[in-house]
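Minutes, methods subgroup
Present: GH (chair), OT, SY

1. OT presented the first of two proteins processed in the latest run. Sequence and structure tokens recorded below as shown on screen.
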Amino acid sequence: MITIIHGEDIVKSRNFFLQKKASVLNPHTFLADNLELADLIQIIEGSSLFDSSKSIFIEDFFTKKKSVSQEFKSITSYLNKKVNLIDLYFFEAKTLSKSQLNNFKNAKVETFLLPQELFKFLDSLFTKDKNLKIRLYHKVIENNEIELVFYMLLRQIRLLLFFKEESSQQIEEVKRLSPWQRKNLSLTSKTLSLTFLKSLHKKLYLLDLRNKSGKLALPLVKYLDFFLLEF
């Protein structure tokens, strides 16, 4: 069986992927950058006393392998023929398109979408009503991991910076946005200065570094409270 794990909620999708891998005795894990057809053939068609499950875990296949390349076509064609012989899991830290999913028509698809309340919070970032912004923030963290909220907050500022540039539509992350998201970000970016957005991005970047290195004196959730009250 082939399972495709994708979606914007990367915390839940990643945890699901890791849980599946942890449940297997001898998983074969590949990053798409280092994956070749020969590797898959060796695992699937090779024989081993210690490797009867043929469980394979591949990360970023659709992102790193261009769908028009011969390598992509060869790998997808081969795996579709061997679907009954393997347990294969693809992980993508984004939402895949219908055409990408159709490369494996018989695959089980696990989609992890972000909650609408998170988008409401992100849309409220630059409202004059700070109480509303803080209220929405606390509502979001009741049901979502703080790491996800932080990631989406940093992503929102980064996207707004992209929209300050004329070439933003050429950026892959922008291309994946829905039309309504692009419209909202474009309108919001016009009301904010480049200097202001850069300062917010720098603060979040430094906060991320301190959090990852364990140098925060308070929980991350508290620091975001202070950050949101600054503007």
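2. SY then presented the second protein from the same run.
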Amino acid sequence: MPLGVAIEFAYLPLRTQRKEQIVNAPAWLWSDEFDFVGKVGPDDLEEWRMSTQHGLYRPSPMLEAMLQAALADRCKLAVHRVPATFPGFALVVSSRGPNRKRLAEAKPDETIPDNAQKMYEDGKMVPILSSDDPVTHFYETSMVSLAAVLSSWGAPVEDQTGLTGKYDFALTRLSTIGDPSVDWDVAALGLKLKPIKIQTENIVIDHIERPSPN
């Protein structure tokens, strides 16, 4: 009989939400760190394994539910949500069109490096391995997946390219200021990031307590 899986992770409460979208947060929420330990029961093991196979940057409903339950139990967290807009970017094709030399259609049965990591939605990537070569390599990657990755590195990004294929390409990091339109050389791919307002929601904290030790 399976025994379940124990999971340990260091977390700042609500760290997965952008700071600007958290209302009424006490100062310690952003400065104090806590170790949470959770356990996946035998009946949920298969769902957990499936949720952890979806790749980088993809939300895990099971993990989110575990965190929410832990925060409600240990921090007595109570919140409500309100509609909001947030500054972000639309990933679009430049006026010259996509650079087909650098944004190449993925080929069937192509060779992908063994160290490539599975990503959100689809595709694989080899992250930057050295500051001397600040390039991330993507394989069999859609523009939806690229937008999700860019969102994880700064402001939210929506795919509005209209490109529906999967591509191989390299993306060079230009800086690390937290603005994807400046940090990444999407222009080399024949793309650009256009500022837009993205519909989202803010989380308003009605009550939260600093958790006590076990």
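Chair's summary of item 2: Residues 1-16 have pLDDT under 50 and may be disordered.
Next meeting: continue with the remaining queue.
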